[in-house]
Amino acid sequence: MAFLDELKKEAEAQKLQEQTQTQSKLAAVSQNFLLVQTKYKEIHHYLRELADQLNVLNQDIKRAYMIEGFGMIDDFRPRDYALSVDSIRIGQKDFANTMVFRFKCATEKNISFERHMPNQIDSLKEYLWQNNLKYQCSEFKNDRGIVARAIFNVANEIPVTFRFSADFENAKIFLQVKNFSGLTVNEYVYDANELNTGLLDELAKYILGKPSKFSELGRHQQALRENARQAQKQKEAISRQTPPESELEDDAAKPGGFFNRLKSILS
């Protein structure tokens, strides 16, 4: 029985250790969740104030977008700033899950163009859908019943979104920026404690097209830039070590070069 008693003690000790680890993990997750919620409140307060002020000020800001099938339009003007929150319910309380700061960039230009190939028509529809651009398409079929021509009328406004989401367990906040720097998607990652008034100020400047360090902030962004910098250095080092192709050709054509040595062997 002494041996069984020892096994029992070991099992109980292991259970206690596992319970302690589980409780510690739950405490850490709970702490991280509350930290993100605190930061969400700061972000919400700041962006709500920003939206209210920008809707009153109506600043003269112009943004340029390249619209496939039409070309570059450089007089889109931001308007209708708003902030929305998607909540989750835990127990009897609601908590912020995601937040979206949004506005529209509008132009007075009429965005209309034609396409004459079925594959081009389908490709353009996909392009407009992926970029959340509203449009109307009038299709014309040929004698065989195949769409041979289409006229696209694209809405003269582009939706821009700054979407905040989170990894609550690890206290990370993600920002996805869509249709701001052209019809693109840019993503940023932050530790929750990196979100402060200073960063939000830089974000506001970025939105207004003013000089800003926003894209440089956050250790994750800094790591990406450093990796890109190191990769560029390696590329330049390899380029310096490799002679230009013209030099290799000149060397091969010299009297003692490869081609002349080969010629003397074959003669």
Task: Give the helix/strand class.
Answer: alpha+beta
Count the E strands.
9
What is the approximate shape? extended
| Number of contiguous helices | 6
Q: Report the span from N to C terminus.
A: 96 Å
Describe this protein's structure:
The protein has one domain (9-109, 156-241). The chain is built from six helices and nine strands; from the N terminus they run H-E-E-E-E-H-E-E-E-E-E-H-H-H-H. It is an alpha+beta fold and 267 residues long. The chain has helices spanning 2-57, 118-130, 197-207, 219-241, 245-253, 258-266, and strands spanning 63-67, 71-90, 93-106, 111-115, 135-141, 147-154, 157-167, 172-178, 185-191. Helix content is 45%, strand content 31%. A hairpin with a 6-residue loop joins strand 8 (172-178) and strand 9. It is extended. The strands form two sheets. Strands 1-2-3-7-8-9 form a six-stranded antiparallel beta sheet. Strands 4-6-5 form a three-stranded antiparallel beta sheet, covered by helices on one side.
Write the layout of secondary structure elements.
Elements: H1 2-57, E1 63-67, E2 71-90, E3 93-106, E4 111-115, H2 118-130, E5 135-141, E6 147-154, E7 157-167, E8 172-178, E9 185-191, H3 197-207, H4 219-241, H5 245-253, H6 258-266
Antiparallel strand pairs: 1-2, 2-3, 3-7, 4-6, 5-6, 7-8, 8-9
Task: List its salient traits.
45% helix, alpha+beta, extended, 267 residues, 3-stranded antiparallel beta sheet
What's a quick, concise take on this entry?
By secondary structure, the protein is α+β, with helices and mostly antiparallel strands.
